[in-house]
Design goal:
Number of domains of chain A: 1
Number of domains of chain B: 2
Number of helices of chain B: 18
CATH topology of chain A: SH3 type barrels
Strand order of the largest sheet of chain B: 4-3-5-6-11-10
Oligomer: heterodimer
Largest interface: A-B, 33 and 50 residues
Number of helices of chain A: 1
Structural class of chain B: alpha/beta
CATH superfamily of the largest domain in chain B: HypD, alpha/beta domain 2
CATH topology of the largest domain in chain B: Rossmann fold
Chain lengths: 78, 367
């Protein structure tokens, strides 16, 4: 459950954000991000459906790469 | 150019490290990255990477799992839980229901969910049913649960909260006579929420080199390098190798919401016992949404004595980093992901499950 997924914000409606990661779209809560100005295009670290921190595109991409590698390794090793 | 994982490995190999050093991590996500990237094999032999208390499902008290099963079976609630919890076994007599998965097979309405928001949706879609969200997790999960409650939830939704704080288990180890580690890699997302400063006590009170890490091999290796240098130079400090997310002070909004919705008290950890100031419980303002108060008849105090790991299972020592997963007598023999006996083989964050997924098949004798 501590595995965070970086996502990019597509649109914001109140505390709700439509976010995307590698082609998958999800609704994400921004309720824990009060006080941090966010806009469409920003990247956030998402935990169990809640954004917990803003992050750079570079940081998001390095985490996505890691997950791709881990999924590939598990598919090969399981 | 930022350093690559290979660069960090070369820097670590070049360190003048004479003795054995044990670096503990306390996060299932860290252990996953370490195992999947094969960092153990890539590091010098005298550096040991110890998976410590980093799996909230593994330490979720047996009595709470039992209570969730009873709520689903006896009270006929819709029982929502993170998917990991469904196969966690409780210790019951032969023929009795031993997991939420078994309760579900018997017709109980058990729903695996991936977010607190799905629990809210379930309650909205089933206004005539009681919905209980069985929420086990560390700070990274407890904060979203707090947010869910503060944003407002339907009357028919209550929470069976088994939230735990990460640092008290590390404090427990450090205060014991045999902590079992020389350096600590602190959890990046717990620090993102609570602030890296929460780990300063490890350095200040115990002199143990510590670095907060993210989840990429680069961040983990940078943190390991930092702690090793701190050891060599005998100058321990709290380093932060995940500064972009784990900012000074953490996420203040998340901390404020945790404080508003929950209080911190002594709490039971499965197989370990009560750890002071280590559990989140709902504040009285949310009593109407507290499943422990709403269904008191299912809160069976006698279970609290039962709260051990399953017979023969060494999960408690695995969680505390006292033994490696494959040193458990059941690992890979009686206990596999297909037929797990202990919670460490059930949860995606359990060290046994991670090691198995990483290809470790050989049991070894405990040293």
């Amino acid at each position: 459950m501590c595995l965070g997924i970086p996502m990019q914000i597509a649109a914001i409606d109140g505390f709700n954000a439509r976010c995307a990661a590698k082609g998958v779209e999800r609704d994400v809560s921004l309720f824990l991000m009060q006080g941090e100005p966010l806009a469409a295009g920003d990247f956030v670290m998402v935990h169990v459906g809640y954004a917990i921190q803003k992050m750079s595109e570079q940081e998001a991409r390095s985490a996505w790469e890691l997950y791709d590698e881990m999924l590939a390794a598990e598919a090969g090793g399981a | 150019m930022p350093l690559t994982a290979q660069d960090w490995l070369a820097k670590i190999r070049a360190l003048p490290l004479q003795r054995r050093v044990r670096i503990m991590n306390v996060c299932g996500g860290h252990e996953r990255s370490i195992t999947m990237a094969g960092l153990r094999g890539a590091l010098p032999k005298n550096i040991e990477l110890i998976p410590g208390p980093g799996c909230p499902v593994c330490v979720c008290p047996e009595e709470d799992v039992y209570q969730a099963i009873q709520l689903a079976l006896q009270e006929k609630v819709i029982l929502a839980a993170f998917g990991d919890m469904l196969r966690v076994p409780v210790n019951v007599g032969k023929g009795e229901v031993r997991s939420l998965e078994q309760a579900k097979a018997l017709g109980a309405d058990v729903r695996p969910i991936a977010s607190p928001r799905e629990a809210v949706k379930l309650a909205q879609e089933n206004p005539d049913r009681a919905v209980v969200f069985f929420a086990a997790g560390f700070e990274t999960t407890s904060a979203p649960v707090a947010a869910m409650l503060l944003e407002g939830v339907p009357d028919n939704l209550s929470v069976l909260l088994s939230g735990r704080l990460t640092w008290p288990a590390v404090a427990l180890l450090l205060e014991s006579e045999t902590p079992g580690f020389d350096a600590l890699v602190a959890p990046g997302h717990v620090a993102t929420i609570m602030g890296p400063e929460e780990w300063r006590f490890v350095v200040q009170q115990h002199g143990i080199p510590t670095a907060v890490a993210g989840f990429t091999p680069v961040s983990l290796l940078a943190a390991m390098y930092s702690t090793l240098r701190q050891l060599i130079e005998a100058k321990p400090f709290l380093d932060n190798c995940y500064p972009e997310l784990a900012r000074p002070g953490g996420n203040p909004a998340a901390q404020a919401q945790l404080k508003q919705a929950m209080r911190v008290t002594d709490a039971n950890w499965r197989g370990i016992g009560v750890i002071p100031n280590s559990g989140f419980f709902l504040n009285p303002a949310f009593a109407a949404h507290d499943a422990r108060l709403r269904f008191p008849s299912q809160d069976d105090a006698s279970r609290k004595r039962a709260g051990e790991m399953p017979p023969g299972c060494d999960c408690a020592r695995v969680v505390l980093g006292k033994i490696y997963p494959n040193e458990c007598k059941l690992y890979g023999r009686a206990c596999t992901p297909r037929n797990p006996i202990g919670p460490c083989m059930v949860s995606d964050e359990g060290a046994c499950r991670i090691w198995w997924a990483g290809g470790v098949r050989e049991p070894v004798e405990a040293a």
